[in-house]
Amino acid sequence: MRDDLAFYFAGVPAFALYFGAGLLMLALFGLIYTALTPHKEWQLIRTNVPAAALAFGGSLLGFVLPLASAMRESVSLLDFLLWGLVALIAQLLTFALLRALIPGLGQRIGDNEMASGILVALSSVSVGVLNAAAMNG
């Protein structure tokens, strides 16, 4: 029984490393995303603008889905970090494309236009799912 426990606990450092790296990447994505969007997510969320919370939350989920896939499939920490970078770029490009297709998207989200928030959230999640699946290909 002790050997089973020792084997189990031997994986804790790798878990902590990957989990910590994942949290740092999620925070980095959130910082970059909020710096590049034309609206101020945190200010809008603090003033109870659901469209902003939905758009931002969907973007976070769209990023973390492929990040989780990269964590599961990677062969090293560097491999994980590089695939995480791919996921980050994919999400930023998704929002840039939506901004090009929908004039005034940031203002629409700031004005609590739920259609815009829903579109950003679901587009981000859709790209995230495709990105995650492509990593397993």
Automatic annotation (TrEMBL):
<feature type="transmembrane region" description="Helical">
    <location>
        <begin position="6"/>
        <end position="36"/>
    </location>
</feature>
<keyword id="KW-1003">Cell membrane</keyword>
<keyword id="KW-1133">Transmembrane helix</keyword>
<dbReference type="Pfam" id="PF03994">
    <property type="entry name" value="DUF350"/>
</dbReference>
<feature type="transmembrane region" description="Helical">
    <location>
        <begin position="80"/>
        <end position="102"/>
    </location>
</feature>
<protein>
    <submittedName>
        <fullName>DUF350 domain-containing protein</fullName>
    </submittedName>
</protein>
<feature type="transmembrane region" description="Helical">
    <location>
        <begin position="114"/>
        <end position="134"/>
    </location>
</feature>
<dbReference type="InterPro" id="IPR007140">
    <property type="entry name" value="DUF350"/>
</dbReference>
<keyword id="KW-0812">Transmembrane</keyword>
<feature type="transmembrane region" description="Helical">
    <location>
        <begin position="48"/>
        <end position="68"/>
    </location>
</feature>
<comment type="similarity">
    <text>Belongs to the UPF0719 family.</text>
</comment>
<keyword id="KW-0472">Membrane</keyword>
